Protein 1
Amino acid sequence: MSLAYVPYAAPVALGDAMDRLGVRMTFAKGEEIFGQDEDADLIYVLVEGVVRTTRFFSDGRRQIGDFYYSGDFFGLETGPAHRFCAEPLTDCVVLAVKRSILRNVDDRQISGAIWEATRRELERTQEHMLMLGRKSACERVASFLMEVAHRQEGAGGSLPMGRQDMADYLGLTIETVSRMVSQLQASGFVAFDNARTFRVTRWDALERLAA
Amino acid sequence: MSLAYVPYAAPVALGDAMDRLGVRMTFAKGEEIFGQDEDADLIYVLVEGVVRTTRFFSDGRRQIGDFYYSGDFFGLETGPAHRFCAEPLTDCVVLAVKRSILRNVDDRQISGAIWEATRRELERTQEHMLMLGRKSACERVASFLMEVAHRQEGAGGSLPMGRQDMADYLGLTIETVSRMVSQLQASGFVAFDNARTFRVTRWDALERLAA
DNA sequence: CGGGGCCTTGATGCTGTTCAAATAGAGTGG
DNA sequence: CCACTCTATTTGAACAGCATCAAGGCCCCG
C-alpha cells in the first residue's frame, strides 16, 4: 500500500500568463476567499500563503477538501457555484482570473496547463479518497505529516493548520489526531518541538507506517 | 448535509469526435482494460457496459475509485502510468484514443470537452471523498443506492456490481454493506427483489437519510 | 500574573470489523 | 427438469478502533 506523493503546483509559465490575465488580491487570515454555494466566476492561483477548502454539512459536520500552497490552483468548478469554501490559514496573496476570460483564451499553453492542473488536483483528491476509505487513524496521521514535510522541502515541518483542521481533513476527531501524534512521537518516528513544529526522525519507518 | 448528484457523461458531440480519433474495442466481463501501474497511453470513453476502477494495496486492501457507465470517460492520467486498474463488470465496448493524438488536436471543442470531463470527474471524486470522510455506514449505503437509481433513469435499479464491490467503493466491509441493505429494506426505504435488483420505495426519506 | 484558546489525556460507549456459520442463488451435468 | 456444487449473500456473536464526554495542561498574549 503505497500512496505516491502528487505535487500539483501550477507550472511557472502558467503563473506568468495568469499574471497578465488576472487580478492580484490579498486576504488576511480568517477572511473568506469564497463561500460555499457562491458564484464561481473566478479561478485562483495562490501566490503566497496557505489556503484550505472546506465543505460544511447542514448538521455541523465538516470535511476539508485540501490545503493549498504557493503555486497551487484552486476554485476550479464545472458548475456555476463553488462547492467548497476557501479560507486562508495565513495572510495570503492570490491571483484571480475570470472563467469567462479563460474560456476565450486561445493560448494552447494556458489551456493545456489548466487542464494539467485539473488532472493533478484530481489525482490528489483520489489519493485523499483512498486514505479516507482504507487507512487506519495512525496511517492517516503518518501520511499527513509526511506530506506536509514533503511540501516544505525538508525533513521537518511547521503545521500552518491546527489539530481540528487536520482532523477534518483526515476524517477523524481532534482527540484521535492528538493521540496518534503523541503515539508517533512516543515511537520515535517524529519529534515535536511544539504542537505546530515537528521533524521527521525516522523517515523510512514513517513511510512504511503510512502504508 | 446534501451531496449533489454529479453526472459526468461526456458531451455527445465529444463522443462523435472521439469516434473519428479513436479505436473501438470490446472487453468481456472479467478481462482487464488496463492494469495498475501500466503505461497510460490511451484515454477511454465507455460506449456500452459498466466499468470499475480499482486501486490495490500491497497488503490486500482494495479501494474502488469509481463505476463508469455509457458515455463516461476514464483512464485520464497526469503522469505516465495508470494509478488504478480498470475492469468491466459486464461485457463492454470502449473507444480508446491515444493521448499523443489528443495533445496535438487543435479542436477547441474537443479539448474543452475533455477538460470539462476531467472537472466532472474531479467533482465526483470530491463527493466520494466527502462520503468516505464523514458519512456513517448507513448513510453511505443509502447514498449509493440513490446514485445507482439516479443513473439508471428510474426509481429502481439493478446493481451491476456485487456486495464486495459496493463495500470497496464505500470503504466498508461486505458484512456491513449487507447489514445496512437489510436494515434499509426492513425500514421500508427500498425493496429488493433479489440481491441485485431493487426499487426505491420512499425516495424522500432515503434522500434525507443519505444526508 | 491571569485569561482564553488550543492541545493532550483519561474513561467509557458505540459503530463497524472480524470470525464463523447458515442460507440463497446461479450454473452444471444428469 | 431436477439434483448437486460452488459462490455470493445474509446473519450472528464477540471484539477493536475510534468517537464521545470530561478534565486537565500548555502556551500565547495581554
Protein 2
Amino acid sequence: MPELPEVETVKRGLQKLLPGRIISGLSFDWDKSFPNARTDVEQFLIGAKILEVKRRAKVLLIELSSKYSLVIHLKMTGQLVFVGKERFGAGHPNDSLIGNLPDKSTRVIFYLSDYKYNASKSSVKKQRSVQNQERWQSFGETPEADQRGEVLFFNDQRKFGWVRLIPTLEVPNINFFKKVGPEPLSEDFTTADFATRLKRRSNTTIKAAILDQTVLAGIGNIYADEALFTARIHPVTKVKDVSAVKRNRLFLAIKAVLQLSIDKGGSSDRNYVNAEGGRGSYLGFAKVFRREGQACERCGHTIIKIRVAGRGTHICPHCQKPLKEKS
DNA sequence: CACTTGACCTGTCCGC
DNA sequence: TGCGGACAGGTCAAGT
C-alpha cells in the first residue's frame, strides 16, 4: 500500500527514467483509472515531452511540455512500472514481473518515445504466455507489441487508483491539494506546526489523527503503527491526552520512520513495487507492522494486532500502554 | 464543524 | 473441493 516512502521511491525511479522521453501513445481498459482520458489526451498528452517527475503527499506528478501534468494516485495497489527495451535481453532481475506485462492488473499503458518505430530485430525473443498475448490484444495491440519500444505500465489490481491529465497550473487547485497538510520530512514542518494541526483533531484517537492527510501528508497504516510504537504511544490515546513530551517524540518518530523507509526503498507488503518492478525492504526493519505473535525487540513481550480507527493496528502491549480512565 | 460509516474494487485466506 | 464472508486500506461522499 503505497504511502509516502513508496511514492517517493517510485518518484525517484521515474525521475531517472522519464525526463526527455516523449509520450507517443496511450491505451487503457478501465475508464475509471483515467477518467478524463477521452477529452484532452490527443491535444495535450500524445507527442508531449516529459519534463520532470515530482511528488506531493502520496500523489505523483509528471510534468509535460504541453503545460499539462499527469497526476497519479496509486491508492492501495497501484504500480507504475517502466519497461525498457532491455527486458528482451536475458536475465533482468525483475523479469518475472515486468516480462509478463501487461497482466490482468494493467489498466493504462503509456507508449514512449520511438514506440512503433524502432522494432528490435535481433532481440532475444521470449516465449510469451497466452494470457499476456491476450492482454496485449485487449489493449488493441498485437502480441508482438511489447517488442517495439519503451512502455510505462499503470497497474492497479483493485482499481482504486487513478490517473488524471490536468493543466500544470491548476494542479494545486484540486481539492486534495487544497486540503492536504505539510510534508513531514520538510524542514519547514516543525513541532509547533504539528501541535497546532493536531489540535483540530483533539477529540479523536492519535492514530486517526496522524492518518488524517489534512493534519500531515503521507502517513498510512504501516508508518502510523511504526511511529506510534517508536514514540511509545498507544494508538487509541485521545489526541488531547498526548503530553507535549510524547507529541514531540512522535514528531521525531514520524520523520525517522519515513526516512528509514525511503532509505530502504519502501515497504513491499503485498503489491508495492518501484518504477523498475523491484521490491522495497523496509518491512524487514519494521518493529510491529505485520509482526503480531512475535517478540517485541525492545521488551520481549508479544506483539498483538487490534482494531483502531477501523484499521488493523499492531502494538506492543507493554511498550504502548493506554492511559487509565480517570473517574 | 467534528467525526463515523459506507462505497469504490479484487484477491486471498479462513472456517465450514 | 467449493463457497460465503471477512479482510486488506486511501480517499471521498454522505450520514449523524
